[in-house]
Amino acid sequence: FEVGIKMAFMVRRFFSSSAPRLRTSAKPTVATPAPLGQGARLETAELQQLAQKAKGPWSGLSKEEVVQLYRAQFPQTFKEMKAPSGDYKIVIPVVTAGCLIAVWLADFLRRTVGPTQPHTFNNPEWEAAGREKLLKQKANPISGMSSKAHA
């Protein structure tokens, strides 16, 4: 019974908003500006030397050294992360070209593959005969205040 309570508490804590989360993406984002890790960007000897110097008191570091260490751990600032990427310059023309190709293809298929029009479609005699037939059948009669029968 105690194991079940402990398990329920652990599950609740894991799914609660205050529980710490594991980062799934390697690239830091505005939502998760985490450092890249210990020694991840300390390739040069100068940066390794600065990291050793940073283990001591930070008052001994100059402003430029602090910025250099920060840039080694966080490759982008918040301003750089929030800056527009310019992806729309590629997406808009590709979507427009796709729509144009679809319209052209539909028109091409309508003209070449589609059925031919029946001989009664644009013939005035057939249209008049069709109207007469509708009148004889009293299709869609007009009723109410505007009808001739109401007057």
Describe this structure in words.
The chain is mostly helical. It contains 6 helices and no strands. It has helices spanning 2-15, 45-54, 63-73, 78-82, 88-112, 124-137. Helix 2 crosses helix 3 (63-73). It starts with a helix and ends in a 14-residue tail after the last helix. The relative contact order is 0.05. Mean pLDDT is 77; it is low at 17-24.
- Major pleated sheet: none
Structural class, please? mainly alpha
Oligomer: single chain
The run of helices and strands is HHHHHH
Q: Termini, distance in Å?
A: 87 Å
Count the helices. How many?
Answer: 6
User: How many DSSP E strands?
Assistant: 0
Residues in helix, %: 40-55%
User: Which radius of gyration do the C-alpha atoms yield?
Assistant: 37 Å
Shape label: elongated
Q: How much is the average pLDDT?
A: 77
Note poorly predicted spans. Answer: 17-24
**Which band does the percent of strand residues land in?**
under 5%
Question: What tags apply to this protein structure?
Answer:
151 residues; 6 helices; mainly alpha
Give the helices and strands, then pairings.
Elements: H1 2-15, H2 45-54, H3 63-73, H4 78-82, H5 88-112, H6 124-137
Helix pairs in contact: 2-3
Q: Could you write a compact summary of the structure shown?
A:
This protein is an all-alpha fold and 151 residues long.
